[in-house]
Design goal:
alpha/beta; 6-stranded mixed beta sheet; 10 helices; 20% helix
Length: 450
């Protein structure tokens, strides 16, 4: 089954710094971080201590609620440091690499021959299970549940997103095996959504294909689910990235864990934007040549500018991320502000400036809000212009802010994650942190409905 879906709502952010389609550097860092805070729903239990030797694929952290869910080391080496925060909260396990990348061996038969239980156990043992995200709520998938469907997006519309074909055209075999394995874990189908045009990944069999056309957030898997088969209160679906599919496929094809990926390094403050080949948990500091070595006044984001995390110069590449965005912190105040009528160097979604006469232009955007937080003043139609989902975004955000569970259910909390409303936050004239509101609402739902 295949269908073409055209989404008329959305907004592409015209920001400079798109990465050229070339790999400028291959990096095996000296230190790699395993950060349990990246995995929603995980209660970490440490399995190693400082000085322990680990292989690539060795267990490092387990989930206290389900000991079968593991986080494993992406490299071989030695545990250098256990990083803790307030109240001894586990923040990261830092692993010093040995440069050899010796892998633990997972002796597996081919995915076609294995049953669903064997596939589930293999993915759990390898530490790749956290790649599977369960909706509603965006938590790590429950291994005891059989999801209605599994969804994957092969269409990247986020600002400066990594190019899908460039990153995955040579991983078709692994992705095919990943699809074969995951298709045995669901009652329904594995759905893969593509953008317009042909793709090398369309040679894959055993999945349902969908083609999307439209502006961001058309590439978000949550928006795609809403257009293909929306999530209802009683439904459970899983999502996975192409990196996750490729890693699972590689596991069954070789018996080894491999998280190596191409990461796009871009943004207005990047010198010669391009790709690096590295692994999640790589220190951002190794990317210093891309911004001249001085991080003062810069915001370094793991992910895209709308929904990524500000990791700073001492942070690490996120487990789920395949792009790093570097932009200027907007600290200057602009004389006369919005009163100035021309402002051809500023982007406006409402045609407030003459820059709308140059739709081809790209802008050196920074983090300046150009205003301060204020009360919600706009009606819901303003946000609905850029959100191609059949929900009420402003009413949902207000319900989350008020902690009203009944209204959160009514206005679509089961269908969204914070990233799906990131573009609403971008256009919001009230400067509200809509993603934070949605995240708080989801946390309340998990607490009250579990």
């Amino acid at each position: 089954m295949s269908q073409n879906i055209v989404l008329k709502k959305g907004l592409n952010i015209p920001i400079t710094g798109k990465a050229d389609l070339r790999v400028s550097k291959a990096i095996l860092p000296g230190i790699v971080a395993v950060q349990p805070g990246e995995f929603k729903g995980l209660l970490p239990r440490l399995l190693v201590k400082e000085g322990d030797s680990v292989l690539c694929g060795s267990p490092v952290i387990a989930d206290k609620k389900n000991a079968d869910i593991l986080l494993t080391s992406p490299v071989s080496g030695k545990v250098k440091e256990i990083v803790r925060g307030e109240k001894r909260k586990l923040l990261a396990v830092l692993i010093e690499t040995d440069g050899e990348q010796t892998c633990a061996e997972f002796k597996l038969e081919s995915a076609e021959k294995l049953d669903s239980d064997s596939i589930r156990k293999a993915i759990l043992a390898s530490g790749l299970w956290p790649m599977l995200i369960q909706r509603p709520y965006g938590v790590i998938a429950d291994p005891a549940v059989k999801p209605r469907d599994i969804f994957c997006s092969a269409y990247a519309t986020a600002p400066l997103a990594a190019d899908v074909e460039f990153c995955f055209a040579d991983k078709v075999k692994d992705i095919q095996t990943g699809v074969t394995a995951l298709s045995k874990l669901t009652e329904g189908a594995v759905h893969i959504s593509f953008g317009p045009g042909e793709s090398a990944l369309q040679r894959i069999t055993g999945a349902e294909f969908h083609t999307f056309e439209g502006k961001h957030p058309a590439g978000n898997v949550g928006v795609q689910i809403a257009s293909i088969r929306p999530i209802r209160k009683e439904d459970i679906v899983w999502t996975i990235s192409l990196d996750g599919l490729a890693a699972i496929g590689h596991l069954f094809n070789t018996g080894k864990l491999c998280l190596r990926r191409r990461v796009a390094v871009g943004g207005p403050m990047v010198i010669e934007p391009s790709y690096v080949e590295t692994i999640p948990g790589t220190p951002v500091s190794v990317l210093a040549p891309f911004y001249g070595g001085d991080a003062e006044g810069l915001r370094i984001i793991s992910g895209d500018v709308l929904s990524g995390r500000n990791v700073g110069a001492e942070g690490y590449v996120g487990f789920f991320d395949n792009q790093i965005t570097i932009m200027k912190e907007g600290t200057e105040r602009e004389m006369f502000g919005w009163i100035r009528p021309i402002r051809y160097r500023q982007f406006s979604t409402d045609r407030c400036y003459f820059s709308w006469l140059m739709p081809w232009r790209r802008y050196d955007m920074d983090t300046n809000l150009h205003g301060g937080p204020r009360a919600f003043l706009m009606n819901d139609g303003y946000y609905s212009k850029v959100l191609p989902m059949d929900i009420y975004p402003i009413f949902l955000a207000k319900a989350c802010l008020a902690g009203d569970i009944d209204k959160m259910e009514k206005f679509g909390i089961y269908e969204v994650l914070p990233e799906d409303l990131a573009v609403c936050e971008f256009v919001d004239p009230s400067k509200n942190n809509i993603q934070e509101m949605i995240a708080d609402g989801i946390d309340l739902m998990i607490k009250e409905m579990a």
